[in-house]
UniProtKB/TrEMBL annotation:
Protein name: Ubiquitin-related modifier 1
Physiological role: Acts as a sulfur carrier required for 2-thiolation of mcm(5)S(2)U at tRNA wobble positions of cytosolic tRNA(Lys), tRNA(Glu) and tRNA(Gln). Serves as sulfur donor in tRNA 2-thiolation reaction by being thiocarboxylated (-COSH) at its C-terminus by the MOCS3 homolog UBA4. The sulfur is then transferred to tRNA to form 2-thiolation of mcm(5)S(2)U. Prior mcm(5) tRNA modification by the elongator complex is required for 2-thiolation. Also acts as a ubiquitin-like protein (UBL) that is covalently conjugated via an isopeptide bond to lysine residues of target proteins such as AHP1.
Organism: Lachancea fermentati
PANTHER family according to UniProt: RURM1 PROTEIN (PTHR14986)
Family from the record: Belongs to the URM1 family.
GO cellular component, as recorded: cytosol
Keyword Aminoacyl-tRNA synthetase: no
Pathway: tRNA modification; 5-methoxycarbonylmethyl-2-thiouridine-tRNA biosynthesis
Length: 101
């Protein structure tokens, strides 16, 4: 199990009960390591209440294009994306760069 802080910014908080920051305890499927992929699965399964909102956050089993994902202020693409193994105290931020007009 890992304790992480998750932030939903750029309007994404609208699909997370208008709350921008969460402190989560997430358990991995094998009981030991927890990856960002496990965290994303947890978010989709447990935190998005409206099924229609899932397509705002997820596309093709990964974070939707237009959502900047940072792990400890570093682009997740530099950290291994969904394979990154989370550690206690990590901060994962999701920021939508798509804005309606």
């Amino acid at each position: 199990m890992v304790n992480v802080k998750v932030e939903f910014l750029g309007g994404l908080d609208a699909i997370f009960e208008k709350q921008r920051t969460y402190k989560l305890n997430v358990e991995g499927p094998d009981g030991s390591t927890v990856t960002v992929g496990d965290l994303i699965d947890y978010i989709v399964q447990n935190m998005i209440k409206n099924d229609k909102d899932k397509e705002v956050f997820i596309e093709n089993d990964t974070i939707r294009p237009g959502i900047l994902t940072l792990i400890n202020d570093t682009d997740w693409e530099l950290e291994g994306e969904k394979e990154y193994v989370l550690e206690d105290g990590d901060i994962v931020s999701f920021t939508s760069t798509l804005h309606g007009g």
